Every structure is written in structure tokens, then in C-alpha cells.
Amino acid sequence: MAQFFQIHPENPQLRLIHRAVEILRNGGVIIYPTDSSYALACQVGDKNALDKIRRIRQLNDKHDFTLLCKDLAQISMFVKLGNDAHRLIKALTPGPFTFILDATREVPRRLQHPNKKTIGVRISSHPIAQMLVAELDDPIFTSTLVMPGDTDAMSDPYDIRERLEHEVDLIIDAGIIPFESSTMIEFTKTGPEIIRQGIGLVPMLD
Questions:
Q1: What is the pTM of this model?
Q2: Which range marks the domain in which residue 138 is found?
Q3: What CATH number corresponds to the domain at position 71?
Q4: Which of 49, 139, 164, 205 is the most exposed place for a label (fewest CB within 10 A)?
């Protein structure tokens, strides 16, 4: 049975953030808010928790997985950042953007795209998401809470609780979050390319 924390979306209670981080460190799967939707999360190196998220979402190996990071310095440990990528990510974050780049050796192989050896990274502007990765002091593996057969992420914490309280270890209630996709940008040999236009606007790539 999942724990259910009501955390203020603008002024998160630090004691509840600490408890959420403890659940992550102990191998738990949590549902938490980002600036574009609710999402599932676990520690990067926890294979059992990752497999649980894959099972909940019915994801295959070819899915582009994402790490939620606290800042650019942390991103640079997990992806290969050229000058152009560094400048663009610095200009757009924190915000509703996911960046696909070549993974470094710090990223477990099972998280990398099997063909491209890439990984997604993002820095969310949601205060709860920011505090979770700051307190954990590590990125978290994250996946938007879009259930099999659905096109949008679940937005109401009480609906999430009813559907998933036996599947995860913690549900964070930060109010209703209407689903809006993050904008996905992939860095190729020819430069950055928007591969999914979402809520985040990128005027410099228009």
C-alpha cells in the first residue's frame, strides 16, 4: 500500500521531502509532480525499481529514458555536453524540456537507448521535483505517468491513488496537474533538433 503525502506545490514541507527521499534510497518507486505532469521515479541504479516502472508503463527497451537532474553540473556527469548543448540547456532550464544526448559511462547500459546509446535529461522547474533531486544529491530515473492505453498523463492525485496505490511506494499529492508534454530536443551530429514540440518554446530553433 502506497504512502500518500500532501506536499505544498510552492512551499514544500522539508520533512516530507526527506521522507520521500528516504523511500527512494530504500528502493521505492514514487509518483511525484513535474512542471508538465505527474511522473514515476526511482533511483538510477535500482534495477528492481526500474523494472517495476517499466512494468507499470509497459515500456520496451527502445523507449527514450530520462534522468531528472538538479543542475547542469550534474547533467554533465551523465551526458556528453558540447558547447552548443551546454549553452542551449543553460538558456532553457529549469523548465519543461527533455534533452536527448549521448550517454556517458555513468549511465547504466539498461537505461541507454539500445541503438543510439543516448539518454534523456531534464531539470524541472517544479519546486517539489527540484527539492527531491537536491536532497537526494543524485539524479532520479523518471517516466511520465501515462498508463498503457492512455494518451495523457494522469492528473488527479486521488485518481492516481485509486489506480496505483498497490503498485508504488509513495504518491505525492501536489494538486491537479493538467498534462502538457515537455518539449523534447535531440542533439544530433548536425545540431539540436526538436523531435517533440510540447509546452516549452524554443525560439532560437524556430
A1: 0.94
A2: 3-200
A3: 3.90.870.10
A4: 205
